[in-house]
Amino acid sequence: MDKFFNSLRSMPLRRGPARMAGGVAGGIADKFGWDVTIVRIIMLVSFLLPVLGIGAYIVAWLLIPAQDDTIILQKWLRKF
């Protein structure tokens, strides 16, 4: 499993410091140089399709490393 999480850390995408919830919108905005408000609006619109929008956000929150390289899913799996 560590190989999988290390490959996630090698990606240039990080959950951003501009956080309202999990930092996913802030990370996407930072990566592409977009305004975080626009990314948040796009995410809110995608939540109208609950399985797609909310599901994708949760998966991204679990798998995208934070600024300090911590991955939430990896932390949870280490507890078991």
UniProtKB/TrEMBL annotation:
Q: What is this protein called?
A: Phage shock protein PspC N-terminal domain-containing protein
Q: Name one Pfam family in it.
A: PspC
Question: Under the cellular component aspect of Gene Ontology, which terms does the record hold?
Answer: plasma membrane
Membrane topology summary: Single-pass membrane protein
Q: What PANTHER family would the database entry show? A: PHAGE SHOCK PROTEIN C (PTHR33885)
Q: Coiled-coil segments, which residues?
A: none
Phage shock protein PspC N-terminal domain sequence ranges:
14-66
Question: Which species?
Answer: Glutamicibacter uratoxydans
The places in or outside the cell where this protein is found are: Cell membrane
